[in-house]
Structure formats: structure tokens, C-alpha cells
Amino acid sequence: MATSQSKSPKDENAKLLEEIAKLKAKEAKLEALEKELKAKEVKEIEANPSLKLKTGYVVNPKEKGHYHAILEQVNISPSGKRLSKPYVQIFSVDDWKSFVKCKGSLGYTVEVIHDPTSMDDDMQ
């Protein structure tokens, strides 16, 4: 009796179905991870108000020659609630130079979101 090296169609179909089941399980895991990452990102944005302003910020083409910054004078109540809100401020180059000199003494936190002298911003 000669033994056949080839597998029967039933065996091959069973293997294919097994592979499909494995792929579907991997796909479900990836979808769950994607949802988890999106939820973390949303929480991070909600926890950091300046991220809300920065996310999706588009510089008006007429204002590309100006500095755009997120400013905030952080103010927190005795109960721990944040009372201040960050906001976007647009500065001319001369105004920016003046502001930079005194920002520390004014108590501002500053995050530049558009620097007219930066080449990276021209790519946006």
C-alpha cells in the first residue's frame, strides 16, 4: 500500500478555517487596542487644556509672519480645581521679543505653536 503525501481537501479546509479564526482573533485584539489608545488620547487631551488648543490648530496664511503661542497664567482653587484656561495669543515679531523678556515675571506658561522663523512650520 502506498501512502499519499497529499492531504485531503477536508484537512486543508480545516487548516484554512483554523487560520481564519486565528486572524479574526488577532483583528479583534488590534481593534481593542486601537479603542484603548484612542480613549487614552482623549483623556490626555482633556487633562491638558493646551493640547485641546494645539490639536488641529491651523495658522491663518495672513498670520504666518507672527508668533502663535498658547498662554496661561495657571490659577488653581484651594479645592484643586483649575480656574484658568489656556488661550492662543498671536504676537508680532517685535511684541514677541518684548514678551519673552518679561513672561517669567508675569507668571505665564508659554508654548509656541507657530514660529515664523522656523522652517518646520512652513511645511504645514
SS class: alpha+beta
Distance between the termini: 73 Å
Compute the number of structural domains.
2
Would you report the number of β strands? 3
Mean pLDDT level: 82
Number of contiguous helices: 3
**Main sheet specs:** 3 strands, antiparallel
Order of helices and strands: HHEEHE
What gyration radius follows from the Cα positions, in whole Å?
Answer: 28 Å
Low-confidence stretches: none
Strand order of the largest sheet: 2-1-3
Strand content: 5-15%
Which outline best applies? Answer: elongated
Helix content: 40-55%
Give a short synopsis of this structure.
The protein is 48% helix and 14% strand.
Description of the molecule:
With 124 residues, the chain is an alpha+beta fold. It folds into 2 domains: 9-47; 58-123, no CATH class. The protein has 3 helices and 3 strands, in the order ααββαβ. The longest helix has 39 residues, at 9-47. It starts with 8 loop residues before the first helix and ends in a 10-residue tail after the last strand.
